[in-house]
Amino acid sequence: RGTMKSLRFISAEAFVSNAEFARKSLGGVAHDLFPLLFKASYLLEQGEVIHDLVKNWPLVDFNIGKLLGTTVDYQEDLSHRTCSVCLESCLTGLRDYVLNHSSPYMKKLKVVDLTGIKDVEVQFCECKKRMGRWTRTQLLSKLCLELLVYLQETQCNPGTFEISIDVLIDLYVTERNYELVVQALLKKCYCPLKICCVAFRSDNLALQKFFYIIKLTDPSLLRKLEIVHNVRLEMEHVEILFNSIHFPLLMSLTLPARTFNVRRFTDEDEGILTNIGEKMGEMTQLTELSISFSILTGRIRKLLSPLKTPLKMLDVSNCSLNHADMAYLANSFHANHLEALDLSGHNIHDLYPSTFFKLLSHSSSVLRSLTLEDCNIQDTHLNMLILSLSPCRKLQEFKFIGNPLSSQALKQLFTFLCELPMLKTVEFPVPRDCYPTGITYPIDDASLCRFDQRKYESVAEELNLILLQASREDVKASTPLFGSYDAAVQETNNELGAYLIKSFKETLEKFTTSLKMS
């Protein structure tokens, strides 16, 4: 794809392109060439060669992010290729490394880091089959358990049991793979491959199961914790979690929708919120926080002021923030450090235009990503919006779908956006004039697709022409009607969909029963 390859890399490609020859010849390959051959094999999707390279890996560490990232011999970053053929070959190769008959004393591998893989929407691999985070979690757990069974049933070299390799991975656990992952974590101390959970995401999981498995992951190593969607975690559960488990390295925390609801607060609840804030203050590495779709009106200060480290990422979308909350954010020490900010679902220009302007001016020197979806931004607010965005010279991503802007206003805004030098991604709304007259915002899901497709395409063409004429072909502009791509949700949508249907059915049954009783 137009990226220069060194002569060494071209030679490596030629070597691995004949899989049978390459596999027979690995014994005579210099150890320092293994990383080069691995990247070449990954590019060409030579699964068998990848398997044998990992099976015979001669180095102390195996860091997939570094191996596939930008290298001197081939600058293209392949870490966003979650190719199923390649990743399965890596993991089975790792299992077979342990079982390889070469002397255990020759085996140097101590750390395998699988956390550098990036899950993206578009796959460039030939097989077009991606292996997402959930499947990687499933496969590694399965291989660890199979390895244990094999070692117990077979007379292996005693030295095999001395092998200890830390496998750093981002785990993703749902109801469907829960039992398997639990078994792998419970038996971790007996297995030569030690699962080390660096990031943990859970969805569609009963609270009891979540609390059990989170303790098994060794929370002292955890850098990122995502509890999302269908985990019924409420504020008192968060307090129990933080009181009973210490997260010294936690850098990123995502809590599910409706964790907080200040409209139902009692005096006891105020105390719980204070305690949660203080516990988060003890997490000295915490720089990313997502608490979207909670009702936190007037309580942002109480939750965030105990933090001793400034936040770099804050998602408070649809949290019903009031003027006091926005004033706190604009004047807090977090404001000068925010690289990513999501204020979606807040009527910013009507409720707190000056504090929003102040917040952006404070974060402008570092802000890379700004999301203002469903914020009721209208044509009359355009000049104020442009004025607020003007100092944000490092902005790379701007998302503002769901706002009632006209085609004319979007053209004006795009003309300005061309001036932001670092901008790469823009997600813009379907223009208001493409919808029937009288449409109300926020638009409900049923009406979302009922717009003039031809007119929209014509406007989108004009907007892209504005970018083109300003020599900004590097900017990708799109309208994802149902929100941005989420690799984790995409991978498990069948399970999550089935769960939602089941929940809906149970609710209907309860409702029908109550009707009959009345």
UniProtKB/TrEMBL annotation:
Task: Specify whether Repressor is a keyword of the entry.
Answer: no
What positions belong to coiled-coil segments? none
Please, which domain of life does this record's source organism belong to?
Eukaryota
Identify the keywords attached in UniProt to this record, alphabetized: Leucine-rich repeat, Repeat
UniProt GO cellular component terms:
cytoplasm
Question: Which family is it part of?
Answer: Belongs to the PRAME family. LRRC14 subfamily.
Query: Can you name this protein?
Result: Leucine-rich repeat-containing protein 14B
Source organism of this protein record: Eolophus roseicapilla (Galah cockatoo)
